[in-house]
Amino acid sequence: MRELSSLVGLQVIATEEGKRLGTVADALVDLAEGTLVAVTLAKTPELQVILAEDIAVIGPDALMIASSDALRSREEAGEALERGHRVLDEPPAVITTRGTRLGQLGAVQIDEGSGRVVRFEVSSGTLKDVTEGTLALPVVEGTVHGEDTVILPHEVVARRLEQAGGLRGALRNFAQRLRTGYGQAAERSEEILHEGGERLKAQAQEARRRANELAQEARDKADDLADEAKEAVQRATAEAEEAEVAEVAEVAEVAEEAEEAKKAKKAEKARNARKAREAKKAEEAKEARKARKAREAKEAKETKETEEVEEADEERPDEDDEQQEQEQ
Length: 328
Fold this sequence. Notes:
The protein is 56% helix and 21% strand. The protein is α+β, with helices and mostly antiparallel strands.
């Protein structure tokens, strides 16, 4: 991880040609996407741009590209120049979505391997930076990086400030100890000035060394606190995401249960309709059987009556014959 400003002045070398193409003049980033977009070359007649995807290696002393074919003109790099922003010479203001001004963009840390922005700092001024420390933030979703202003989601910054409250207190105490150490070192240096000779030089050097150590300790402490704050933000974000996933799962489960109940109700309605149809058919069959039996009974009765009439007709001639015989 290195500061974006450390890219300025690096030699640009084309590996296939073994040729020095110039030095880096500026670096363009997009904090909304969290990426290094491009770098520009210094002291060229026309603007020459190297896109981030064409950078092979960002080393301690040189920036390596495959060949000079990676150099782009202003027209060729138009999209990248529109997307990337200069933040080194003219740091943009940093403000939240609710209109709270946080300060100006400070140091931007990038991963030299991937070109991703790891974090960036927001400066509230030299005095506040010394007494309270800078606000260090990772790249967060919802960031807007404009021409002269960076807009951050208010809720994310509020959580970050709340989580960093204890860290800022620790940093202020450490800064106070640092100022005390500097004061003591300065007072001691004044005393040493009166003693003269080699002893004076040795003690002055020791005082400067101690001051440098204290300054380095302050920087290290600030980095540690920033890393802790970043982890806290990441944990909070992960917990929020887990809660959101759980809520979505619960809603989906309720919806699934409602759908199952709807299907069950529909199936029950279908079963009832089927039973009603079957009952109707059974009733119709019963009525049909009943009607058939009635017809059969009627037909049997009619047949019997017909047979009785026929029998009566057959017996009537015999009676007539008997009557005629009696009359004779």
